[in-house]
Specification:
Order of helices and strands: HHHHEEHHHH
Structural class: mainly alpha
Number of domains: 2
Strand order of the largest sheet: 1-2
Length: 186
C-alpha cells in the first residue's frame, strides 16, 4: 500500500478516532458532566494518542485494503533488500507497531511491559492477518506477523531506554550518553 493510498484514508481514520474518543468519554465511570469528562480526557494525551493511533493502524491494515487474493504469498518476504534496494514493506510493517506498543505502555502501565508488548503485538497482528485472510483484504503473510512483532518489541525497547532511571525525554538521554562517552575518553 503506497503513501497516496494511506493518505486517501486519513479522513476515515479521523472520523473513526473521534467516534472512539467520544465512546471512551461516555464509558468513563467518573462523576460530573460531559464537559468535565472531556477536560479530564484531554489532559490524558497518551490515551488520546493511543486511541487515534489504533484507529490509524486499523485503517491502514484493514479498512484501507482492497479485495485481493490473500493466498498469493503466504510466507511473505523476509529479505530486507529486494533487487539491491531496501524493501519498504518490511520497514513499514516494523514502524507501524513501534508507536502502538509504546503508547500502550504509557496508557496502561503493565506490570510486565516486555511480555505485554510481545503478546499485544503478536495477538494484534495475528488478528489483523486473520481478518485479511477471512475477508480477502490484502495478503495474508507470515512475514508480516514476524515484522510487526519485531516492531512491537522495538516500541518496548524505546520505552525502556527513555523511561528507566527517571529519564523522561530524548534530549536528556542523549546528553547523558554523550557525557558517559566523553568521561570514558579522559
Amino acid at each position: 500500500m503506497g503513501v497516496r493510498t494511506i493518505l486517501h484514508f486519513i479522513p476515515q481514520t479521523i472520523i473513526f478516532s473521534v467516534l472512539s474518543i467520544m465512546a471512551y468519554i461516555f464509558i468513563q465511570d467518573n462523576k460530573g458532566n460531559i464537559r468535565n469528562k472531556l477536560k479530564q480526557f484531554l489532559n490524558q494525551r497518551w490515551i488520546a494518542f493511543h486511541i487515534i493511533y489504533c484507529a490509524f493502524l486499523l485503517t491502514v491494515t484493514l479498512i484501507g485494503r482492497y479485495k485481493a487474493n490473500p493466498y498469493t504469498n503466504i510466507i511473505g518476504t523476509f529479505c530486507a533488500f529486494k533487487n539491491g534496494r531496501l524493501n519498504s514493506e518490511i520497514v513499514v510493517n516494523i514502524l507501524l507497531y513501534i508507536p502502538y506498543t509504546y503508547s500502550f505502555i504509557m496508557v496502561y502501565h503493565p506490570k510486565s511491559a516486555v511480555l505485554s508488548c510481545l503478546f499485544l503485538s503478536l495477538i494484534t497482528t495475528c488478528g489483523i492477518e486473520t481478518l485479511q485472510l477471512l475477508f480477502w483484504l490484502g495478503q495474508f503473510s507470515l512475514a508480516d506477523i514476524v515484522h510487526n512483532t519485531i516492531g512491537g518489541m522495538l516500541g518496548y525497547i524505546l520505552w525502556f531506554i527513555f523511561h528507566t532511571g527517571g529519564e523522561r525525554n530524548l534530549l536528556s538521554c542523549v546528553a547523558k550518553a554523550i557525557r558517559k562517552i566523553l568521561e570514558r575518553d579522559r
